Amino acid sequence: MTEAAGAGRNTEAVSRFVEHFAAQLVEAGLPRMPARVFAALLASDTGTLTSAELGEQLQISPAAVSGAVRYLAQVHMVSREREPGSRRERYRVHSDQWYEALTNRNAIIKRWEDALREGVTSLGADSPAGRRLAETLAFFEFVETEVEAMMERWRVHRDKMFGRD
After folding, report:
1. Which residues make Cβ contacts (< 8 Å) with residue 50, sequence separation at least 6?
2. Considering only CA atoms, which of 85, 28, 157 is closest in space to residue 38?
3. pLDDT value of position 124
4. For a tag site, which of 20, 43, 90, 100 has the least CB within 10 Å?
5. The model's pTM
């Protein structure tokens, strides 16, 4: 039995969970293969699996694992680690992956805000397009403020529920 299933776990039940949760992630916009890899990592006891373990569990090729992990690393949902004394990499999902993913989205929102400000200036704040861009900018500024406040409330809540890391 692989680590992915965990000692004493029903591998079919684990597989059903992985596929079901991955389907939910796909429905929310995550590509299918990264969603499956992420769900498999999330379901592993250690939160880490090798490419071979992922391929075996999900019945996918090494190339599919590589592409999925590359995508997940770019969006800060997993990280790569070298096994000590080995060339093999392990892929890790962290307990704060949702926090990290949302926090990193904040940097994207800031870039969008900069582009929108430039657009408002270029198009003229009084033009219909300029007003539309200004409203979009105001929306993203509002979201940015709300996400920052929500993340702080989450840290406090998490610490109460699970203790500090």
Report:
1. 83, 88, 89, 90, 91
2. 28
3. 94
4. 20
5. 0.72
Contact 47, 93 (CB under 8 A): yes
User: Do 93 and 82 meet the contact criterion of CB atoms below 8 Å apart?
Assistant: no
Report the C-alpha gap between 21 and 50 in whole angstroms: 20
| Residue 77 CB coordination number (10 Å) | 24
Closest among 61, 66, 52 to 4, alpha carbons compared: 52
Phi, psi of 91 (to 5 degrees): -110, 135
Separation of alpha carbons 110 and 47, rounded Å: 31
Q: β-pairing, 89-92 with 48-50?
A: antiparallel
User: What phi, psi does 12 have (nearest 5°)?
Assistant: -65, -40
Q: Who contacts 3 (Cβ-Cβ below 8 Å, separation ≥6)?
A: 44, 45, 46, 49, 53
Q: Do 4 and 22 form a contact (C-beta atoms < 8 A)?
A: no
109 pLDDT band, cuts 50/70/90, is: confident
